[in-house]
Amino acid sequence: MTRGAVISIIVLIATSSAIAGDIRGKVKARGWKHSGDAVVHIDKIQGKTFPAPAKHAAMDQKNLVFIPHILPVLAGTTVDYQNSDDVLHNVFSPDKCAEKFNLGTWPKGQTRSYLFKEAGCFPVMLCNVHPEMEAYIVVLDNPYFAVSAKDGSYEITNVPAGKYTLKIWHERLKSQSVEVQVPETGDVVVDFEIRR
C-alpha cells in the first residue's frame, strides 16, 4: 500500500467519525438489586427508517434461565430461542403486541424462532414448563441503544450528530426521557436515576 493510500484511508476514517458522537453514562437503579439490564435508547428519529439486520438475534435457555435477561432488537428482527438444558423448555408471550405467540415445547439442542415486528413493544418471555423463568425483548425502531451493565454503565456509539430524545426502559422501574444534543465528535454524558 502506498503512503498516499494510507493517508487517504486515515482522512476517510477521520471524516466519517467526525459526523457521529457517542452517548455514555451511568444508570442508578433505586430499590432494585443492581443497575444493570436497563435499556437506554434514542426515541424515534423522524424521517429515517432502519432495515432489520439479516442476522438473527439469539436468546438461550440455560440452567433454567433466559440468557440474556433483556434483549433489545430492531423492529423486524428474528430472535432464535435455543434450548441448552437437559429438560424441555417452552417460549411464549402473553403480550398482544407480540401476537401472544407460543412456540411450543422442545428438547435440548433445538431452536425455535419468532419475528418481532412492532417497535415500542416490550413483551415478556415466559416458559410454561418453568414458571420462574422470565425475560424481555425490547423492540425499537432504530439501532441506537445499549443495555446497562450491573454497575450501571452504558454506551451508545456512532450516533449521528443532532438533537434527540433519549429514553430509558426498565422491567420494573419507571421510564424516563431527556433531550440530548449529540456532538459531531466526542461524547455526551447522560446519567439516569430510576426508581419505582
Report on the structure:
The chain has one helix at residues 3-17; strands at 20-29, 39-42, 57-62, 65-67, 70-74, 77-83, 89-92, 102-106, 111-116, 124-126, 134-140, 145-147, 153-160, 162-169, 176-182, 187-189, 192-194. It has one helix and 17 strands. The radius of gyration is 19 Å and the shape is globular. Strands 1, 13, 16 and 17 form a four-stranded mixed beta sheet that branches. The chain has 196 residues and is mainly β. The protein has two domains: 1-48 and 145-196, Immunoglobulin-like (Sandwich); 52-141, Cupredoxins -  blue copper proteins (Immunoglobulin-like, Sandwich).
Write the layout of secondary structure elements.
Blueprint: H1 3-17, E1 20-29, E2 39-42, E3 57-62, E4 65-67, E5 70-74, E6 77-83, E7 89-92, E8 102-106, E9 111-116, E10 124-126, E11 134-140, E12 145-147, E13 153-160, E14 162-169, E15 176-182, E16 187-189, E17 192-194
Parallel strand pairs: 1-16, 1-17, 3-6, 5-11
Antiparallel strand pairs: 1-13, 2-12, 2-14, 3-4, 6-9, 7-8, 10-11, 14-15
